[in-house]
Amino acid sequence: MKTLCVKGSVFSGKAEGAKFIKLPWVKKQIKEKIGFDPYNGTLNLRLANGDSLKLDKVLKTAKPIEISPETGYYLGKCFKARMKRSIQCVAIIPQIPNHPKNVLEIIAPFNLREKLHLRDNDTVEIVLEY
After folding, report:
1. pLDDT value at residue 27
2. How many CB atoms lie within 10 A of CB 73?
3. Which of 2, 79, 70, 69 is nearest to 34 (CA)?
4. Which of 78, 59, 63, 81 is CA-nearest to residue 8?
5. Alpha carbon distance 129, 1 (integer Å)
6. If pLDDT is split at 50, 70 and 90, which confidence band does 18 have?
7. CATH of the domain at 45
8. Measured between alpha carbons, how far is 7 from 52 in angstroms, rounded to an integer?
């Protein structure tokens, strides 16, 4: 297994990720394909340009875990990941038109922002597995 370490800045989103994660078919696929019941929300990370380019290069060849969409929704590409060296999580790259390439949405079985005492503009390192 290969890994990619990227850093991102925490920012508040528009709760779009939370709406997606709450969908029963999404929760079911995350449980079956990844192995946990996700917290109803995502941690938004804005990657620096260099890390965004590295991620884009990896995405061209890596085999993601896919959350297959129901009609009217888009595919979600997922990669198992770690934060703070030991906190297991998953990075989701929504395949939505115009979704910024430098934004990662991170999910876990708990609220990452609360557990890690994160605020907007905090820098977080995440290690993606592919």
Report:
1. 95
2. 16
3. 79
4. 81
5. 7
6. confident
7. 2.40.30.30
8. 9
pLDDT digits (tens, 9 = 90+) for 77-129: 999 999 988 899 999 999 999 889 899 999 999 999 999 999 999 999 999 99
* Number of domains into which the chain is organized: 1
The phi and psi torsions of 81 (rounded to 5 degrees) equal -155, 175
Question: Which structural domain range is residue 89 located in?
Answer: 3-129
Which residues, other chains included, contact 24 with Cβ-Cβ below 8 Å and sequence gap of 6+? Answer: none
- The answer to whether the beta carbons of residues 119 and 70 sit under 8 Å apart is no
Residue 14 carries which DSSP code? Answer: -
At 115 the three-state DSSP class reads helix
Tokens of 12: 């508040």
Q: Which residue carries 């929760």 as its tokens?
A: 27
pTM as predicted: 0.92
List, as one string, the DSSP characters of 34-96: TSSPPPSS-EEEEE-HHHHHHHHHHHTT---EEEPPPTT---EEEEEEEETTTEEEEEEEE--
